[in-house]
Amino acid sequence: MKKYTSLISIIILILTFYWSYSDLTPSKVTNEFNSDTEFSIENALSHLKVISKEPHYTGSKGHLIVQNYIVNELNKMGLIAKVKNQVAISKWRSSTNTANITASIKGYEDGKSLVLLSHYDSRHHSSLGASDAGSGVVAILEGVRAFLAKNKQPKNDIHIVFTDAEEIGLLGAQAFVDYSPLASNIGLVINYEARGSGGLSYMLMETNGKNSQLLSEFIKAKPNYPVANSLMYSIYKMLPNDTDLTIFREYGDINGLNFAFIGDHFDYHTEQDSFERLDIETLLHQADYFTTTLNYFAYSDLSNLNSDIDQVYTNFPFVTLLHFPFSWILPLLIFSVIIFTFLLFIGIKTVKMSIKSINTGFIPFLSSLVTCMVISFLLWKLIVLLHPSYNDILHGFTYNGYQYIIAFSFLNLWIVFKIYKSFFVKHKGVDLLVAPLFFWIIINFLFFIYLKGAAFFIIPVYFALIVLGLLIFLRNYDSLKVVLSTLLSIPLVYIFAPQLRTLPVGLGLSNLFITGLFIVLMFGLLIPVFKSICSNKLCIKAIGFCSFLFFLIASFNSDYNENNKKPNSIVFINDVDKNESYWASYDHVLDDFTKQFFEDYTVQNNLNDRTYPSKYNNSYKHYNKTDNRIVKPSNIVKVRDSLSEGLRYITLIIKPQRSINMISFYSDEPLSFENIGIQNVFINKLDELKSVRNLFTYYYTPYDDNLKIDLVINKEIKPSLIMTETSFDLLSNTLFEIKPRSEYMMAMPFVTNDAVISKQKINL
């Protein structure tokens, strides 16, 4: 038995690792379309092919095409689709004339209504929006068709809402919550989103109260592949990545469920967010969420999904979601300390454990933690130094990112084995297990204080305590101890293995040191298992070889090609007041496309003083003065300038002289305003206008001829504003002769790109 113990343990761990992923998502063969009342992936894909044919950002020609397509499909189902125009202003003071699409299914009771939500605009200017959020649109279209085919009236009113302008500030959701009469009686919103083109779809709750009732109802809906844990939502709330659902919660006090996937993050907001690159299994995952939750919530009580209890929850083997209330966290911690102390006392008293060896066990564990995290952090810095073009992938996740995750995981595992090797020879596993258990308990105490959503980390502690008890009380039977320890480690691997992949994708590869942290923590609780494996030198060499191999594969795949395109950026800026023009780029590394604009380029500088910076405060890395080209600025007509009770009221009419996609107003110095109005809609949160530099950005749509701006300021203030006007037509503009991008290149996302920008100062 001893001869095969290590092999059995390795097989169990590998199978559990595979199970932890395969158990959470459907496969392509699970979708069998047998009748009209079932969800058809083929129907959904046929919708998606049309919707993602071309970019359809708010204000574009493609946007109207997609809008008409969705309206027609809803009408074909016998629903009455409506398009509602409404100017909306976000909390970031971005604004536009939104065009939300709504349709309703009447329920047989007058209770709270259910909203099925996704947005139909893509990110400007080049994203095809197949995943974000075409996947959500088609999941709803096909899911509603199958639901209606049952000819069974729901208990609750169901409102289908496809919002506009989500990508430029959640504006469609803002318009719906602020102005739609449907918003006054909503019990639950189910939203479908994407931050990549594949991977697991996570359930993330939005609630102003506690989550217990909402979680309970979600579990009752019986989704076949629920993927959720309370840590993910805690992290989600910390990141600057709001969704439409956030608006419903913040401004409407409405509960909601988010279903979103983040895999293949490198496709997010790019032209590679295409029909061909969307993972079909991910779309099936969204479809499973849709059909199960719709069939449940269409007939359940939505009148009170609030709760006064918060729950910790996580995926767990053979259980939909293991969950327990926050009130259990401290008792579970205290009880774990009691058991831990008792086992230490018994182990030392019976001479099964050695105080000296226990203390020595802290050396390899702490060494592993520090070494793995530091090496992972510095090694990624070195990799970026060797591949500077990685800086231009603003997602923070490269095309070979999954290969790097595997390489770093094997590297960290190899490092820990090498550090522990001599300690495994001189010390018993029962003694070496104490240090990791001690740190796991300390970490859980920190989570109790600062991050209660991560309190499910206590679960593997209890299984490890059982292992510690077995090692103390079970005499001899060393092989049996190892196998039992491996079996008791299944929950640890099942819960945390997916995080090794998910966290670097969601947080970026610069955070790969977190993977090192997780591997050391998991290794610590697996010491009784790995001690037996460590005697197999071939196994350790194989781990080191796998790390080297995947680093080699990642390096080999570091170049760009037609399937994994290199992002780059260029804009033309015309300073109307100075009668000067510039080329500017966000690129860290110039390529064959961008070099044509910087042939005589000698100086790198920041161009923030010349135009307003783009999203996430990315600044220009290169700029170069060029031959001046006159770009017609808008005509500015002041139709009102009056004083009343110490305030000055100014109304401007902006009349574009060329095709404009967006217009921004900002100031070099902070200014205080009493109010700002855009197209007769005024900002609600006046306290946010007391000291601002960025006044607002407005995105033009076909519904806009002119732009009306109302400013209310103290009469003593004489503001000097800067207006920038941007059009996304640089590559097609007749003022320029530009060599097009190569097939392996694409427009960089997240920044203003391929744009003609005019800038002028307005003295008021």
Task: Please give a structural write-up.
The chain has 764 residues and is an alpha+beta fold. Among the domains are: 2-20 and 325-556, no CATH class; 42-316, Zn peptidases (Aminopeptidase). The chain has 21 helices and 23 strands. The strands form four sheets. Strands 1, 2, 3, 4, 5, 6, 7, 11, 12, 13, 16, 19, 21 and 23 form a 14-stranded mixed beta sheet that branches. The protein has a five-stranded antiparallel beta sheet with strand order 14-15-20-17-18, with no helix packed on it. It has a two-stranded antiparallel ribbon with strand order 8-9. α4 packs across α9 and α13 (401-426) runs antiparallel to α21. It is globular and about 90 Å long.
Termini distance?
88 Å
Q: Which structural category do the helix and sheet elements fall into?
A: alpha+beta
CATH fold title of the domain at 42-316: Aminopeptidase
Helix content, binned percent: 40-55%
Q: Roughly what fraction of the amino acids lie in strands?
A: 15-25%
